[in-house]
Amino acid sequence: MTDFATMLHADRGGPAHTIHLVDKNNFGGWAKRQSTSRRALLEAARFDGKTGFQFAFLPAEQGDGFDVVSAVANVQELSPWCLARLGEALPAGRYRLAEGEPGPAMLGWLLGQHRFTDYKSKPDPDRGPRVLLTQQAADIDETVALAEATVMVRDLVDTPAADLGPVDLEAAARMLADRFGAKVEVAAGDVLEQGYPMIAAVGQGAIRERAPRLIELHWGKNSDPRIAIVGKGVCFDSGGLDIKPAGGMRLMKKDMGGAAHALALAHLVMNLKLPVRLHLLVPAVENSVSGSAMRPGDVIGSRKGLKVEIDNTDAEGRLILGDALTKASEGEPELVLDFATLTGAARVALGPDLPAMFANDEDLAHALQDSAKAVTDPIWRMPLWDGYDEMLKSDLADLANSADSPMAGAVTAALFLRRFVPDGTPWAHFDTFAWRPSPKPGRPKGGEAMGLRASFDMLKRRFTA
């Protein structure tokens, strides 16, 4: 993993290149204060202070070296991404802002320097770290942890399915446990079939080397409030016997994006030592096509005791989450968060950038929305509309795993999950794309963390206030 700790240092003076931040409102006045030669260079570079992520090099005001001028949307309210382009493009060296502190922009500075190159025969040459100096030394550790967690999501999602099966998700959880002194338990084989029949049913078509399992991680003091974090770990989704078309299957290595988010959020909780008792659950499966795969029309059991009719084998994520949510609820947590790349309907409704958030508790929903705004990690609340529960009716079983209507697909999926969360347990469900289809500075095309920073900020405010 990229060593982000080398890229943020406390500012104790010493030489560094100066970064001048300007926006469309203050650029004219700032430019007038520059020397004639510096203004000429800005004109030659067609730098107007308005174009997003635009920057230019200037001779240093004093001595040798250079300064940097960069356009941002608002110099008074820096976003996490306004320094990302500089982190990507500047040469190695030490930098500080001419005025003010980078604040949230430190995150983009770090993430702009990360590349996932595991499958490159000739990785990009190492240009050395671009170090940002800050007086906000107390914020460095958390910013580094946030960058590490974001990259964890991205790298796990970007890894091809051939190299990331259920056993590899288990290995990722064990690495976290080793780093932070947590305990891991894994249910597989007969134990899984008897205790978690929906997880077993979804994964029963996979080859033995990619057998299904429920991965649990426990961390924290027994006296601290208990929280549960659940992540959908479908390492590859063919759709099962209701097989996806080729175009729909192309990105299904990312169907474990919910598990990646859950692991990353657990990383933040443990790394920054939130005073909670953490219970992480990752049901890890591969939804394969084979003679032993579950069939449309099958009726399967669940850990909760409900019988579920399989209307569509491609609606498998909600099945494995149902058993995991049941297990999480048995510990009587103060709240439950789950993350899943669950429905295409959420993408149709909200596009790739906005994860759909459902919550059964108003205080929890408002807290997540407040945190999302505070840390610029957007989410959008969707309704748990009771009237659509009837779409999940089954003539044979207690409920079906897929609605009898193509409408409101994200809502009915969330309503299915709600059946496995006890009344009175605060719960929020994120239906996320976990993927960026086109690059932006600090945010390359590929796997992406969405709602992760909002969720952590909410937990931090709730349990350290």
Automatic annotation (TrEMBL):
<keyword id="KW-0645">Protease</keyword>
<dbReference type="InterPro" id="IPR011356">
    <property type="entry name" value="Leucine_aapep/pepB"/>
</dbReference>
<dbReference type="Pfam" id="PF21337">
    <property type="entry name" value="Peptidase_M17_N_1"/>
</dbReference>
<keyword id="KW-0378">Hydrolase</keyword>
<protein>
    <submittedName>
        <fullName>Leucyl aminopeptidase family protein</fullName>
    </submittedName>
</protein>
<dbReference type="InterPro" id="IPR043472">
    <property type="entry name" value="Macro_dom-like"/>
</dbReference>
<feature type="domain" description="Cytosol aminopeptidase">
    <location>
        <begin position="312"/>
        <end position="319"/>
    </location>
</feature>
<dbReference type="Pfam" id="PF00883">
    <property type="entry name" value="Peptidase_M17"/>
</dbReference>
<dbReference type="GO" id="GO:0030145">
    <property type="term" value="F:manganese ion binding"/>
</dbReference>
<dbReference type="GO" id="GO:0070006">
    <property type="term" value="F:metalloaminopeptidase activity"/>
</dbReference>
<dbReference type="InterPro" id="IPR048816">
    <property type="entry name" value="Peptidase_M17_N_1"/>
</dbReference>
<dbReference type="GO" id="GO:0006508">
    <property type="term" value="P:proteolysis"/>
</dbReference>
<keyword id="KW-0464">Manganese</keyword>
<keyword id="KW-0031">Aminopeptidase</keyword>
<dbReference type="GO" id="GO:0005737">
    <property type="term" value="C:cytoplasm"/>
</dbReference>
<comment type="similarity">
    <text>Belongs to the peptidase M17 family.</text>
</comment>
<dbReference type="InterPro" id="IPR000819">
    <property type="entry name" value="Peptidase_M17_C"/>
</dbReference>
